[in-house]
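Researcher: Next sequence.
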Amino acid sequence: MQFFLCICILILNILIYYILGRAFCIKCGCRPVIPETVCIGFFLYYAAFQIIAEIMILTKQKLHVLSITWLVLLAVLLAAALYVVTGSKKQQRPARAPAASVRNVRPARIVRLLAVLMAAAVLCECASAVLIQRNIGWDFAYYIGNMTTSVATDTMYLYDGSSGLLRKTIELRYALSSFYMNTACISQVTGISALVLQKYVAGVLCVLLTNAVVYSFAMKVFHRDLKKSAILVTITVVMTIFWDVYDTSGQFLILRGYEAKAYCANVVLPMVCYLLYRIWKDSGDQSSWARLFVTAFASVAVSMSCVVIVPVMIVIMLLAHMAVEKKLDLTVIRRGICCLLPNVCYLAVYFCYSGGWLVLEV
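Model: Next structure:
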C-alpha cells in the first residue's frame, strides 16, 4: 500500500511542478519544453516553501503548523497557476482550420524509436537508483533521523538526528535549508514513513529531474533536434549507470539520490549551468534571467551545498561576459547581482552563525 501511495505522491509532485512552471513561463512569455517546465516548477515550489518553512523553523513552531500553512498556501498557488494556464489557453485558441488543411503530423519512426529508447534508459536509471541505494553511514542516519525525529516529536531541528536528544541550540548549518522538512510534512500528512518517502520518492524524482535538465540543455544546444537530444540523454544515462567512479555526481545520483547533495550536484548546478549558457548566448533574454533568479533563490532550499557554488558560477559568468565583450554591461551586471542576492544573504547569516554571533537557543 505504501508503495502505491509513493507512486501517487511522485506523480502528484510532478503534476504540481508542471502547473507552477507552466504558469511562470506564461507570465515570462517563454515556451520551454515540458521537462524544463517541470524543473522550473520544482524550483518555484521550493522557493515558496523555503519562505514559509524558514519563518516556522527559526521561530520554533510545530511541524504540523508548517504542514497546514503550506497546504493552504500551495492550494492558493495552484489555484492561481491554473487560472493563468486556463486563461492563456482561451486567449491562444486558434481559429478552426478547414478540414482539408488539417493533417495528422506524426514524428518520424526513428524519432519515436529514440524516444522510446530514452524513456527505457531513464526508467532503468530510476530502477537502479531504487535497487542500489544503501545505508552508507553517518550521513544517512543523520538526514533520515532528522526527518523521522521531526515527525515523531512534531518539531523542526530541535532534536539531534543521530541521537534523538534535545539540542541546546538550533544548528543553522542544516536548518537554513527546508529540503528535508518538506518530506517531513508529507510524511506527517500521509502517514508514510519519512525514510520510505525520502529514499524512494525523492531518489526517483532526483533521477527524473536530472534527465529533464539534460534534455532541456540538449534541446537548446541542438536547436530542438529531438533525435540528438534523445541520444544525448540515453548516453548520459548509460554513463551514469556503468561509470562507477566514487564521489562523482553520477555516484551520488545512483547511491545517494535521496540526499540534498545529490540534488545539488545533479539538478541545481546543471540547471544553473544551462541557464547561464542561455544568458551567454542572449544576455537580453529576460525570461532566462527570471529562471536563473528563481533557481538561485531556491538553490539553498534544496541544498546548503549550493550556498557558495551557485554564486561563484554566476560571478564567473559575469566576469567572462565582461572579458569577452570588453565592456561593462550595466544591465547584465545589475541582473547578475539580483540573482546573487539570495545566496549572499544566506552566506551572511551562516557566517554570523559559524562565528558565534548568531545563536538560537532551543
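Model: Residues 18 and 178 are 21 Å apart (CA to CA). The chain has a mean pLDDT of 88.
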